[in-house]
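In response to reviewer comment 3 from the previous cycle, which asked for concrete evidence that the modeling workflow produces usable outputs, we include below a single protein chain processed end to end. The sequence was submitted unchanged, and the resulting structure tokens are shown without manual editing.
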Amino acid sequence: MTIRVLIADDQAMVRAGFAMVLAAEDDIDVVAEAEDGVHAVELAERHRPDVALMDIRMPRMDGLEALRRLTRPGTVNPPKVVVVTTFDDDAYVQRALSEGASGFLLKDSGPALLVEAVRAAASGEALVSPAITVRLLERLNSAGPSPREPHTALSPREEALVRLVARGLTNAEIATELTISVGTVKTHLTNVQTKLNARNRVEIAAWAWESGLVDGRG
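The workflow returned the following structure tokens.
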């Protein structure tokens, strides 16, 4: 199945670079490019992409407001939105998490990670760079973890899995770490999402940091 992608960034060279990388993949098709949030929402409604790569700081409407509009309740087949950011944007990450972002990627992460992020989002997963997971979420909680204890409904195996998600590991890497199958990882993730009322693994990672289940030491 071909993955239909929308690229939203106010820098033409960034859009062109992303488009060139993605167009080289047989299973990815760039269907639209937007220079701001307003245009991104319009093009998403017109072209119905599977994945939207969304910059944060754009004119007219920023990427976080565009994310909110694209994933609002009641939307039929909303795109999976991968926020493309820099560490300077970390003050906005909490809002992106609450609005249902499906991943985080640095603009200078490189072609391979860009392609992997698109494929992960399209398959219902979320690629969060380990560097972003540790540094951004740690900054968000620099004042210290919330006083609440880790969720008592989580089993020891689920807590172990959540710690690995918060470190940015993929399902395959988690399976290797815990010596279980990828299918079992997905089952555990589904159960954890239900227990934590989390929409995706990004929100699971944020919860792990906020609850104190993980800290800057990993």
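The domain at 3-127 is CATH 3.40.50.2300 (Rossmann fold). We consider this sufficient to address the reviewer's concern, and the full set will be provided in the supplementary archive.
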